[in-house]
Amino acid sequence: FGDPTKTIPNLDEALAILGDQPSRLKADSYLIRGSSHITNGQPDLAFADYKEGIALIDRLYGPDHPVVAKIKLETSAAMAALNRKDDSLRLAMEAEVIMNRHPSPDSDDLAQMKLNLGAAYANAKDYRTSRKYLTEARAITLTIKGPAHPDLALIDSNIAEVYVSEKDFATAMKLGREALALMERTTPKPHEDRGNLLRVISDAAGGL
């Protein structure tokens, strides 16, 4: 979202102009400003803005609409980055209930939602549920993007990290090496995801 020192004042002005009337533009402004607060190292302000954005989405669409699940999962990922694990898991579980009520066809959005759910459950140390959602995200991604897409390497990296947490180091090592081979074929270097994956492989090797 660019320089937060410029983005935040612009959004402050936009929110003031939008006033009290609920709108998707106002909800998105809160969510974007929340993201800018994260970049600016202000987690409490970020959390407050995410709460406002979700409340507006609820009012606009109703609490059971699939778009609410998507926003809650995106916010869950942000809360995990802020180390607010309880908030992250609560939002993920609320999103999960909505998703289960509205089954949808395979899509990139659905894969990302399941990836976010997997990450939230991993942060909560519920590794079995985490692997379930990560595996589902992988299956959807494989179907819609094929076997040579870098998103598969990213998902496999997450699954390997879960196996490390479960102390199944051999499985983590095998999956991590396969993910690294795919990442090296499909992802430009250097890349942050590659560094994370190398750390996972190192952790797995250290446990063998």
Q: What keyword list fits this structure?
A:
single chain; 208 residues; mainly alpha; 10 helices; 0% strand
Short structural summary:
The protein is an all-alpha fold and 208 residues long.
Describe this structure in words.
It contains ten helices and no strands. The protein has helices at residues 4-18, 24-39, 43-61, 66-81, 85-101, 108-123, 127-145, 150-165, 169-186, 192-207. The mean pLDDT is 88. It is mostly helical. The chain is 81% helix and 0% strand.
Shape: globular
Query: Which percent bin holds the helix content?
Result: over 70%
Strand count, sense and barrel status of the largest sheet are:
none
Rg from C-alpha positions?
A: 18 Å
Average the pLDDT over all residues and give the rounded result: 88
Low-pLDDT segments: none
User: Structural class, judged by helices and strands?
Assistant: mainly alpha
